[in-house]
């Protein structure tokens, strides 16, 4: 676009400039809409329609601005006057427009003539005031300075400058409702939150939601904060960033022993792992090894069907949709039907509700029953498991990994890619060490 | 307009009542509650690995549950699955649309998803029969850009979008199961609770909302930020929500007290938060900012205890692995760094 505009302003082959009359001041370098169209048609050999479109784009992107009605960015193919925007304010050179500059512009307008700001400008002004409050003194100072400097110019220049600035800001901060041509891509400025249609429906919904929210039970902040403290404390030893980890942090030592020791299936689990099962029932159930140990315990107590039922429900909740009906039927046969092989003990109310829901089985039809069994296990079997010999012996036999000696090779630190560490110095060489010999690609 | 004015007054008065109820349960300050806790001291983390390979800004990353693999999305139109220990690229998936803004790894490790300005969430199967990674589903229904997506399982995924809604999809059939509408600004991020019953979303209307996945309703709304909420995450015990915003602060909202309990801010921090992640115990919160750094906050004392400086451009995404071992940051300088 810039090339076109520059060509248009060429004194020889460009548009013939006329003078604009503004009361008594004469401002040079103006042209009419018709001039623009004629010139474009001739120069580029295009139809008048296309010239109109092209000219319109020049207008919308801020390279040309109208003198009569600044807000109307449509090219009129008649006697309405236009002028070229100075390169200082071209969209390509000054984008994105900074918040600071906009603030200064609005401040100037505000100072020059009190109350001259339009409604939306006033809103944005106060918003900016909140956002960049820390540099507000600078903004006001700059505005005053710029106004003072402009007073020393000739009137014609002053008017031209004012028009140029106004045109620039109309493009870069369009009034609400006008689509911004600069609004595209990921870096577009976030919409200055326009309120959704404030219809009565909106308020009615707000009121309904607020009424519900008012009725909710709120826990004391002391209790909540206490909860966070306890949790962080409990898990502190398990947090490698806080506490480091044994035998060694694989990222630092390049030794994957930690992961091997903690993988899903190990003959002997680590101590931290077994300890974490006592933190909460959820923690126990989320560890596959924990689940297996718990199952073994339940089998001894002849209540294993509870855990089996719970696992089957989980499978339905998160599994494929196509097999839901089949799985629900399976569950009914095995766990819920009278005289079933592994009958689970659910209260009659929940049972009735579940049976009713099973007529149209869906993913969550067994939720209530599952919840009931979950709490049964949590209140009864879980605490007893933690006190049982099975758990205690596992805990005592659990591995407390020795800290592996970190190699003291000087350039170990700077290495960014893994390579087999000087083998001798590092503890339990695992299979992985060999496998990684030729591992890394060019970094 | 008499009716409107009345309704507006009623809405305002209810809001005031809610605020009063919230104040009523504030029986202590953070300083008092955390007075007995030992100070963390300076946390220094070093870059252990740098993952090079992207050719343009990285917009998102997500760890797999095995804590070794991770996926990253960049505007060069590629989704790369990295073995972060060896820094090898396991998969480099070319995307149809290069304007990608988010990516996610399924808990099972079988699927990855991504989406962006194409308004669609594309699901890729990593464990295809012939070893090729192909598009499994394209979930299209949003009318705005996809800002974030998270898997619940191999069959369900939740997406948040610039059209102010979030959607729960059934991946098998490619259809929407539930639409969560209520935000009044673009939804920028979402996080799923550890028990998979709820999820939270942060939006450009300066609030975050807690949604019941099954019911499709908004359980709680947390106002308090003064600008767009860009990042959101659950505190590891599932009882609190941590949010990061363009107003340069991070806040912790407790679900049971229904209000903001802690604000993480510092006068020297003057740029917005782009992403955040809590450490495994929840004691530390790592947050990425526009000034190219990551600040580490002590969650219980609300103090800054460390800085990760090393990127040459904005930190756009951050994630802590499931075993809490390492933190990965992705930046507009096209590199991913692993720290601990």
Q: Classify the helix fraction of chain B into a percent range.
A: under 10%
Instruction: Please state roughly what percent of the residues of chain A sit in beta strands, choosing from under 5%, 5-15%, 15-25%, 25-35%, 35-45% or over 45%.
Output: under 5%
The CATH superfamily of the largest domain in chain A turns out to be Regulator of G-protein Signalling 4, domain 2
Rg value of chain A: 38 Å
* CATH structural class of the largest domain in chain A: Mainly Alpha
Number of domains of chain A: 3
Strand line-up across the major sheet of chain B: 1-28-27-26
Main sheet summary of chain A = 4 strands, antiparallel
- Please give the alpha-carbon distance between the first and last residues of chain B: 60 Å
The CATH architecture of chain B is 7 Propeller
Main beta-sheet strand count, sense and barrel state of chain B: 4 strands, antiparallel
CATH level-4 homologous superfamily of chain B: YVTN repeat-like/Quinoprotein amine dehydrogenase
Strand order, largest beta sheet of chain A? 1-2-4-3
Secondary structure: number of strands of chain A:
4
Under the CATH scheme, which class of chain B?
Answer: Mainly Beta
Q: If helices are DSSP runs of H or I spanning 4 or more residues, what is the number of helices of chain A?
A: 21
Please indicate the count of domains of chain B: 1
WD repeats (chain B): 51-92, 139-179, 180-221, 222-263, 308-340
InterPro entries (chain B): G-protein_beta_1-5 (IPR016346), WD40/YVTN_repeat-like_dom_sf (IPR015943), WD40_G-protein_beta-like (IPR001632), WD40_PAC1 (IPR020472), WD40_repeat_CS (IPR019775), WD40_repeat_dom_sf (IPR036322), WD40_rpt (IPR001680)
Coiled coil (chain B): 1-31
Keywords (chain B): Coiled coil, Repeat, Transducer, WD repeat
Quick take:
The complex is a heterodimer of chains A (443) and B (340). In chain A, 53% of the residues lie in helices and 5% in strands. Chain A has helices at residues 2-9, 33-44, 48-60, 99-112, 119-131, 136-151, 155-172, 200-214, 221-235, 240-243, 250-253, 257-261, 271-276, 281-286, 288-301, 304-318, 324-336, 348-357, 367-387, 389-397, 431-435; strands spanning 18-22, 25-32, 64-66, 81-84.
């Amino acid at each position: 676009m810039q090339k076109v505009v520059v060509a248009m302003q060429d004194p020889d082959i460009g548009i013939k400039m006329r003078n604009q009359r503004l009361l008594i001041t004469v401002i040079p370098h103006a042209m009419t809409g018709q001039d623009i169209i004629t010139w474009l048609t001739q120069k580029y050999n295009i139809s008048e329609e296309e010239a109109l479109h092209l000219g319109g784009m020049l207008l919308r992107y801020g390279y040309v601005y109208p003198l009569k009605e600044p807000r109307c960015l449509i090219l009129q193919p008649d006697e309405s006057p236009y002028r070229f925007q100075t390169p200082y304010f071209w969209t390509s050179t000054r984008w994105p427009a900074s918040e600071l500059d906009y603030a200064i512009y609005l401040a100037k307008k505000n100072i020059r003539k009190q109350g001259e700001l339009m409604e939306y400008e006033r809103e944005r002004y106060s918003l900016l005031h909140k956002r960049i409050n820390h540099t507000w003194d600078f903004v006001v100072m700059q505005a005053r300075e710029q106004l003072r400097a402009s007073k020393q110019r000739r009137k014609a220049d002053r008017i031209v400058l004012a028009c140029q600035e106004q045109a620039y800001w109309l493009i870069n901060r369009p009034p609400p409702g006008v689509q911004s041509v600069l609004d595209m891509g990921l870096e577009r400025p976030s919409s200055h939150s326009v309120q959704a249609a404030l219809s009565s429906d909106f308020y009615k919904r707000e009121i309904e939601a607020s009424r519900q929210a008012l009725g909710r039970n709120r826990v004391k902040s002391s209790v909540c904060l206490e909860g966070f403290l306890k949790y962080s404390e409990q898990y502190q030893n398990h947090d490698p960033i806080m506490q480091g980890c044994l035998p060694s942090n694989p990222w630092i030592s390049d030794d994957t022993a930690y992961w091997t020791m903690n993988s899903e299936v190990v003959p002997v689990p680590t101590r931290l792992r077994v300890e974490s099962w006592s933190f909460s029932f959820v923690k126990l159930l989320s560890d596959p090894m924990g689940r297996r140990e718990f199952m073994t315990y339940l089998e001894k107590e002849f209540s294993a069907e509870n855990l089996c039922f719970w696992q089957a429900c989980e499978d339905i909740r998160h599994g494929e949709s196509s097999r839901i009906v089949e799985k629900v039927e399976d569950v009914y046969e095995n766990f819920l039907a009278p005289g079933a092989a592994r009958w689970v003990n659910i209260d009659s109310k929940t049972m009735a509700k579940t049976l009713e829901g099973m007529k149209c089985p869906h993913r969550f039809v067994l939720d209530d029953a599952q919840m009931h069994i979950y709490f049964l296990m949590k209140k009864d079997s879980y605490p007893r498991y933690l006190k049982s010999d099975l758990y205690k012996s596992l805990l005592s036999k659990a591995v407390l990994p020795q800290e592996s000696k970190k190699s003291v090779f000087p350039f170990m630190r700077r290495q960014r890619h893994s390579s087999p560490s000087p083998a001798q110095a590092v503890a339990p060489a695992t299979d992985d060490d060999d496998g990684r010999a030729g591992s890394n690609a060019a970094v | 307009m008499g009716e409107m004015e009345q309704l507006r007054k009623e809405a305002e008065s209810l809001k005031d009542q809610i605020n009063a109820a919230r104040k009523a349960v504030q029986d202590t300050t953070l300083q008092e509650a955390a007075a007995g806790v030992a100070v963390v001291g300076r946390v220094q983390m070093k870059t252990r690995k740098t993952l090079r390979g992207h050719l343009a800004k990285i917009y998102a990353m997500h760890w797999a549950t095995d804590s070794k693999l991770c996926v990253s999305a960049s505007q060069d139109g590629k989704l790369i699955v990295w073995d972060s220990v060896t820094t090898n690229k396991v998969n480099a998936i070319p995307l149809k649309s290069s304007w990608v803004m988010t990516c996610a790894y399924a808990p099972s490790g079988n699927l990855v998803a991504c989406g962006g300005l194409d308004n669609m969430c594309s699901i890729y199967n990593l464990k295809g029969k012939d070893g090729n990674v192909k598009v499994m589903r394209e979930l299209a229904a949003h009318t705005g850009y996809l800002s974030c997506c998270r898997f619940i399982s191999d069959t369900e995924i939740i997406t948040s979008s610039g059209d102010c809604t979030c959607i729960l999809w059934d991946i098998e059939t490619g259809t929407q199961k539930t639409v969560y509408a209520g935000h009044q600004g673009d939804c920028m991020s979402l996080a799923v609770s550890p028990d998979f019953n709820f999820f939270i979303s942060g939006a450009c209307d300066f609030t975050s909302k807690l949604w019941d996945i099954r019911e499709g309703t908004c359980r709680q709304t947390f106002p308090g930020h003064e600008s767009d909420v860009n990042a959101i995450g659950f505190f590891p015990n599932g009882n609190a929500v941590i949010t990061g915003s363009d107003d340069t602060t991070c806040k912790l909202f407790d679900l049971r007290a229904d209000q903001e309990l802690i604000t993480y801010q510092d006068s020297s921090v003057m740029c917005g938060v782009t992403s955040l992640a809590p450490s495994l115990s929840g004691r530390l919160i790592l947050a990425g900012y526009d000034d190219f750094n990551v600040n580490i906050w002590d969650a219980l004392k609300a103090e800054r205890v460390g800085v990760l400086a090393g990127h040459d451009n904005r930190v756009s995404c951050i994630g802590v692995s499931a075993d809490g071992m390492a933190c990965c940051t992705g930046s507009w300088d096209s590199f991913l760094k692993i720290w601990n």
